């Protein structure tokens, strides 16, 4: 009787959140599927005409755009996440000591995380400037380059340039979480490893890393999911250019939907994108599971 | 020299090296922000000088005044504040109760609800923005702040509920039981006993919701059309076309959008980190 009343109370408490999430997360996904099967081309008449899988077959078989964008998204995601993870891990290992000013350093390393995307993009655009950008200025002064690099307008440089910004934006969250995970490594273990004469690298590989492995896997998965769908930075820095060099899937979807006004086609692409995310997640979690099992076997 | 003093020397040498690396890392990582601040405080000609200086030669607040008095920036600022504050209020109100329910009460569907919260966090915004644009147009809310406020609330909720759950779980259950024995109703117990103890959690969630609303770009870009409704992110982005090459204005504008967030963050970073860990690690 008491339990039943408690449960009813619980439903009452979660109801508002459930309503909002259904209306703004679930309903739109359904709408998106419907739209992707309809004509929905603002230029043409009869937007709600059913066209079946026409948009999907156009994306998958008729035009190369989806595949080129997907490939660029994979590059963008892989390099951003790998870079951010390495930076985060390096800083977390450094700060995982009892040193004075630890909290201050942690706060400072977190700062890029709170800078609004718009400010981030604009300020990096200013740093990357061809003629008056400070990066070109400093590199010229030190003598590394003798003429300005066109960071954002050279098709070869644009992708590395936007990836660097994403790394800057992405590493802080990974850093805090890794730092917290490192606290779980028992001090005695590291100390006994030192006594046993293990070097720094060996200590990391065999003592520290096993403790942060699970966290690392989950973190890189989350970071991949975020980066795969990130829109702001690339849109504001290059708009997908130059010559489509940074046209990752989110930018492609935006262009098709709100410039081309092809809502149906854009929805189909964005759902394919969701499918990719699902595949990544499942693959990742499968690896996680099998890795976990292996670790257990090794311990046994 | 004994072994101990040798060890001590080695230790202080390691420490010195660590500090050097840390300071170098901070310098490199925070340089972009330093450069934004420095550029925004330089008179415009200094920005385009042949020989750039790290600090302004003639410090000035002129750029900030030009942005604030010469453009629509105050309107954008107010719009952003309104949208971020109202969506944060809604987010906190809704997530507090939901988080308490999943932290403390066993009910059928609790697991499914938890999964729903995790899954919806994964939905790409670029996917949601198209159908939401269509739906919002259909119900006549396009080009209103209401649409943005509700959308921001919906996108923050899954994370904030998850985050608060961690804080509630850390509060000893005995406190509640004692209140129940004293005859307090469930809702009173929650309001009088639990909520005051979850202060840091509330601070973290409030901060998180506000940052989210203050920074959000894509939905504002798609939902808003009239300039007088623009929030700071899209207002500032529109400077790129409107005031091309006016980096003095753009950097001062970036400074204005960043400062409040940075200030609150540095003030409350302990709670925010705690909340971030509660939400991210448990998930």
Task: Let me know the number of strands of chain B.
Answer: 0
| Structural class based on helices, strands and sheet pairing of chain A | mainly alpha
Q: How many domains comprise the coordinates of chain A?
A: 1
Mean pLDDT of chain A: 88
Query: What is the mean pLDDT of chain B?
Result: 89
Largest interface: which pair?
Answer: A-B, 80 and 87 residues
Morphology of chain B: flat
Q: Helix segment count of chain B?
A: 13
Contiguous runs where pLDDT drops below 50 for at least 5 residues of chain A? 295-300
CATH structural architecture of chain A? Orthogonal Bundle
Quaternary state of the chains: heterodimer
What Rg of chain B do the Cα atoms give?
A: 24 Å
Binned strand content of chain A: under 5%
C-alpha geometry of chain A: globular
| Contiguous runs where pLDDT drops below 50 for at least 5 residues of chain B | none
* Helix percentage range of chain A: over 70%
State the fourth-level CATH superfamily of chain A: MetI-like
């Amino acid at each position: 009787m008491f339990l039943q009343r408690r449960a009813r109370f619980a439903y009452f408490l979660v109801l508002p959140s459930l309503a909002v999430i259904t209306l703004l997360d679930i309903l739109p996904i359904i709408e998106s599927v419907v739209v992707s099967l309809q004509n929905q081309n603002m230029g043409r008449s009869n937007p709600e005409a059913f066209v079946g899988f026409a948009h999907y077959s156009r994306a998958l078989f008729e035009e190369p755009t989806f595949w080129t964008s997907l490939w660029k998204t994979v590059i963008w995601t892989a390099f951003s996440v790998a870079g951010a993870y390495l930076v985060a891990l390096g800083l977390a290992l450094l700060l995982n000591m009892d040193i004075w000013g630890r909290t201050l350093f942690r706060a400072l390393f977190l700062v890029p995380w709170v800078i609004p995307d718009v400010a981030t993009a604009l300020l990096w655009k200013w740093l990357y400037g061809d003629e008056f950008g400070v990066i070109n200025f400093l590199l010229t002064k030190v003598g590394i380059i003798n003429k300005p690099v066109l960071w954002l307008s050279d098709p070869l440089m644009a992708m590395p340039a936007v990836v660097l910004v994403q790394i800057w934006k992405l590493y802080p969250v990974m850093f805090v979480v890794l730092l917290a995970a490192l606290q779980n490594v028992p001090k005695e273990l590291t100390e006994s490893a030192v006594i046993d004469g293990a070097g720094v690298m060996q200590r990391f590989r065999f003592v520290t890393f096993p403790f942060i492995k699970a966290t690392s896997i989950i973190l890189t998965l989350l970071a991949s999911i975020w980066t795969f769908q990130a829109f702001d930075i690339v849109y504001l820095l290059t708009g997908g250019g130059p010559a489509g060099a940074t046209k990752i899937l989110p930018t492609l979807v935006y262009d098709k939907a709100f410039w081309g006004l092809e809502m149906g086609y854009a929805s189909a692409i964005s759902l394919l994108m969701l499918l990719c995310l699902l595949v990544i997640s499942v693959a990742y979690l499968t690896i996680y599971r099998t890795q976990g099992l292996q670790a257990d076997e090794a311990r046994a | 020299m004994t072994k101990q003093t040798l060890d001590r020397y080695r230790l202080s040498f390691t420490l010195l090296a660590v500090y050097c690396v840390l300071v170098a890392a901070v310098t490199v990582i925070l340089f972009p922000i330093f450069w934004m601040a420095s550029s925004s405080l330089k008179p415009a000609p200094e920005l385009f000088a042949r020989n750039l200086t790290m600090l302004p030669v003639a410090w000035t607040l002129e750029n900030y005044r030009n942005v604030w008095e010469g453009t629509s920036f105050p309107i954008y600022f107010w719009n952003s504040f309104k949208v971020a504050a109202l969506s944060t209020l809604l987010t906190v109100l809704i997530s507090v109760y939901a988080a308490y329910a999943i932290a403390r009460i066993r009910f059928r569907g609790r697991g499914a609800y938890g999964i729903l919260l995790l899954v919806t966090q994964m939905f790409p915004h670029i996917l949601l923005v198209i159908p939401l644009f269509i739906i919002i147009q259909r119900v006549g809310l396009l080009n209103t702040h209401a649409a943005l406020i509700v959308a921001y609330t919906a996108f923050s909720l899954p994370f904030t509920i998850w985050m608060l759950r961690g804080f509630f779980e850390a509060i000893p259950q005995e406190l509640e039981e004692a209140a129940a024995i004293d005859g307090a109703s469930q809702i009173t117990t929650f309001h009088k006993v639990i909520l005051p103890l979850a202060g840091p959690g509330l601070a973290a969630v409030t901060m998180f919701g506000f940052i989210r609303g203050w920074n959000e770009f894509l939905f504002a870009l798609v939902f808003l059309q009239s300039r007088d409704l623009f929030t700071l992110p899209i207002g500032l982005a529109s400077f790129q076309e409107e005031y091309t090459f006016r980096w003095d204005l753009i950097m001062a504008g970036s400074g204005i959008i960043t400062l409040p967030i940075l200030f609150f963050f540095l003030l409350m970073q302990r709670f925010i980190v705690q909340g971030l860990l509660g939400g991210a690690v448990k998930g």
